Every structure is written in C-alpha cells, then in structure tokens.
C-alpha cells in the first residue's frame, strides 16, 4: 500500500503530529501490554507456594503464556491491513485487560494455566506497534522508529520485574496475606491496560493522512479485502522463504527475551538465594536495557542501509545474532553474582539489538502484505519462546544448563539470516526511496528532541 506523508524525522518531544502521537501511543501501549503479559512472572515464587506448583507445571504455564500469542500474532497482522491499527489496538487492550485482572481468581494449576493462556493473546500487541510505526515513518528512519517503539515497549518487561514486587509489598502493607496480595496486585496492570485502550482510540489515527476508512472513502487506499483477499495477502507472505528465515531469526532473539523475562527472577532467587525484591530488581535490569538497546539495533540498521543498502541491513542482523549467542553461552557459565549481572547486561544488549535489526528488514520484504509479514515474523518470536520453554520445564535439566543449550542454538541457527536476499531492482528502488526520504535532512540524526 502507498501511504503518503510519512515522517522522515523522529521528533521525540513533538506530540502535535499524527506520526509522533502514533509513535508514543504505540510504544506506551506495548509497554503496558508487557506489564500485563509478564506481571505474574516476578511473583512466581509466591504463586508457586500458594498453588503448590512443580517446576514442570511452572514450565507449562510459561509455554501457555507465549504459545497462544503465535496464533493471535498471525491473525492480528491481517486484521491491521483490514481495519487499521487504531481499532485493532483499542480492541486488544480493552479485551486483554479482562484475563489480566481475572488471573486473581485462579485457585489451582489448571485455572492458573488457562489464565496465563488467555493473557498470552495480548503479546500480539507487538505486531500492531510495528505496523503502526511502519505506516507513519519513511525508509530513512523506519528502522529506528520500529526499533525504538518496540524497545520502549519491551522495556515493560524490565519495569514489570521491578514494580510488581513493590506493588505486591504495598498490598501486604495494607494488611492482606501473600495469597491474596499477588491476586490483588494483578488488578493494577489490568486497569491501566483498559484506560490505555480508550486513549488509543481518541488520540491516534491509522496513517498520516487519516484513518483507513477515510482514506478508502477518498480513494487513497484500496478497499479492504474480504476473506479471500486476506487469505491471498497471508499466502503471499507465507510463500516467501525470507519471511520464514526472519521467523526463525526473531525466535532466536525475541523468543530468548521472552524466556528470560519468565525465568530471570526465579533463576536469581533460587541460584543466588536472594530476596524476591532483589531478584526482581536484577531481573528487571535485563528488560531495562530496552530503553536504548533495541533502538541501537534499528539505528545501526539504518546506518548500514546508508552504506550497503538492504544487504547492509541483513549483514548487521547477522553480526548482532552471533554476538547474542556468544554472550548467552557466557552468561550460562557465571557462578558469581556480580559477573552474572555484568554478562547478562551484555547479553541483553545484543538480544535487543538483534530484535531492532530484524524489524529494520521486515518493512522491505513485501509492502503489499506488510501486516501478514509482520505477523508471521512476530509469531516466530513466540514459537522460539515456546521451544526454549521446554528446556526449562524438565526436572532433570537445571536452568543453567538450559541457558547454555539455548546459547548454542542461537549460534547454530544464526546462519538463517543469510537466506534473506533482495533483487538488484529492489535494492535500487529502496536506495532511491532512502535518498528521497532524507531530502533536506541530509546529515541530521534520525532522533531529535524537537
């Protein structure tokens, strides 16, 4: 689809343009979704005692929390193409708030598992975030815009690890016991999600020139395709080998991040015999790297594109993945707390830069089926998380061993990046689009405060 008037700069403190409002609302919405999606993770040591869960059962709930997202992400991209990101995001936030608040009603492993399964659907918010920023920003900054919005959204994984134990402690100070405290604490992210959805409806629009319905009424956008058209869009993306290569690649980076978000607090709690609050704080550092790390991945993607075109974007993605795998193997071998924290931060840096680099490539695979491509690749992250979760559900395999094998897997499969190639015609077309987008801003940075 041909969207006009995309922004060629990211002016962080400018809230007057539809491009920047979409940018800020999309990352904030994704951040809040992460808050709801993984809000229970830093409290698992308490939930484990309350519901008498085994390691295998905890592993199954981790799988449930990310498995359903695979299906929803595949569908949500096509839905964005049909009704636009504004309506799609609003619906997901408002409906997703229900199971987040409802998990407090769980009183057994089975009901807790079902609640985490339902909550997992809000992980599809990532696809809408990337779709919306791709609609709003030009080729010279789209990598940076996608990476920053997703990174600041992923930051929710870090703030959740830090805030939820504090919220839980606040509940205990009100006089409730631990069993009721974790249930009451989960009401907080659910309520915030609901009101964020209302704000998304009133303060954003689908594209720079208006909502999809308005653009179609003016003839600036093709009519929404029916079921056959949606299926054709999905099939066009599904037939492209590059899409599935990126599907695997995203599983190696975002899938790993989701896994760490789920196990980091309990890993540090058990291995280093820390308090729940301290373990949550350290685990939160992993996610807090998103405040700049994923943005760096997108910035480098745009810089590599300036020098090497689309091949440059792919080359940078490969470098980031290899560095991630090496750092993960090193992290798995740490037995001293201070060293474990330091290596974890290096590992986090490359995980998130690889994610930013992946979605620096995605917008150029198939512009006519952008939603389907973004959905399939995004689903790959959750498939990776499901696969990784099996390493951590076995009673015979320690978390440390699981991390080691996961690092080796990243190194072994990083070569999938090399399957992502572009024709000479596409390279030339995108090189011209890049130069046209830069326009009068040659030499200026992609990110600015005005």
Automatic annotation (TrEMBL):
Major facilitator superfamily (MFS) profile domain ranges (all copies): 22-427
Keywords: Cell membrane, Membrane, Nitrate assimilation, Transmembrane, Transmembrane helix, Transport
Positions of transmembrane segments: 21-46, 58-76, 88-106, 112-129, 162-180, 186-203, 243-268, 274-293, 314-331, 337-362, 369-391, 403-422
Membrane topology reported for the UniProt record: Multi-pass membrane protein
InterPro entries in the cross-refs: MFS, MFS_dom, MFS_trans_sf, NO3_transporter, NO3_transporter_NarK/NarU-like
Keyword Transmembrane assigned: yes
GO function terms (MF aspect): nitrate transmembrane transporter activity; nitrite transmembrane transporter activity
Localization terms from the record: Cell membrane; Membrane
UniProt GO cellular component terms: plasma membrane
GO BP term (any one): nitrate assimilation
Family: Belongs to the major facilitator superfamily. Nitrate/nitrite porter (TC 2.A.1.8) family.
Name by which UniProt lists this protein: Nitrate/nitrite transporter
């Amino acid at each position: 689809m041909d969207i006009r008037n995309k922004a060629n700069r990211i002016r962080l403190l400018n809230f007057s343009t539809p491009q920047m409002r979409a940018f800020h609302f999309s990352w904030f919405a994704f951040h809040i979704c992460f808050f709801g999606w993984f809000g229970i993770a830093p409290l698992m040591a308490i939930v484990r005692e309350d519901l008498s869960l085994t390691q295998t059962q905890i592993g199954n709930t981790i799988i449930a929390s990310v498995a359903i997202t695979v299906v929803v992400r595949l569908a949500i991209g096509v839905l964005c193409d049909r009704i636009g990101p504004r309506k799609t995001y609003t619906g997901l936030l408002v409906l997703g708030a229900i199971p987040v608040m409802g998990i407090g009603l769980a009183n057994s492993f089975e009901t807790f598992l079902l609640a985490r399964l339902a909550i997992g659907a809000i992980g599809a918010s990532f696809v809408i975030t990337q779709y919306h920023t791709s609609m709003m920003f030009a080729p010279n900054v789209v990598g940076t815009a996608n990476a920053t919005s997703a990174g600041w959204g992923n930051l929710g994984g870090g703030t959740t690890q830090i805030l939820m134990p504090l919220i839980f402690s606040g509940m205990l100070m009100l006089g409730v016991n631990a069993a009721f405290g974790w249930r009451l604490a989960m009401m907080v992210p659910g309520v915030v999600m609901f009101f964020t959805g209302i704000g998304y409806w009133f303060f954003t629009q689908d594209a720079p020139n208006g909502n999809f319905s308005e653009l179609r009424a003016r003839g600036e956008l093709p009519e929404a395709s029916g079921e056959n058209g949606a299926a054709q869009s999905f099939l066009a993306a599904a037939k492209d080998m590059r899409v599935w290569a990126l599907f695997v690649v995203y599983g190696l980076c975002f899938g790993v991040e989701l896994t760490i978000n789920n196990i980091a607090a309990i890993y540090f709690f058990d291995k280093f015999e820390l308090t729940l609050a301290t373990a949550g704080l350290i685990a939160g550092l992993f996610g807090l790297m998103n405040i700049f790390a994923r943005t760096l991945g997108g910035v480098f993607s745009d810089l590599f594109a300036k020098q090497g075109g689309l091949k440059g974007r792919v080359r940078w993605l490969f470098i980031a993945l290899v560095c991630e795998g090496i750092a993960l193997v090193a992290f798995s071998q740490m037995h001293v707390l201070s060293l474990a924290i330091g290596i974890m931060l290096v590992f986090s840096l490359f995980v998130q830069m690889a994610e930013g680099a992946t979605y620096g490539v995605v917008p150029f695979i198939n512009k006519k089926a952008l939603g389907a491509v973004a959905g399939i690749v995004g689903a790959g992250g959750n498939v990776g998380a499901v696969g990784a979760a099996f390493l951590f559900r076995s009673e015979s395999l320690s978390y440390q061993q699981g991390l080691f094998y996961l690092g080796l897997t990243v190194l072994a499969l990083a070569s999938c990046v090399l399957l992502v190639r572009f024709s000479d015609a596409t390279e030339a077309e995108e090189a011209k689009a890049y130069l046209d987008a830069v326009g009068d801003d040659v030499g200026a940075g992609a990110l600015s405060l005005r």
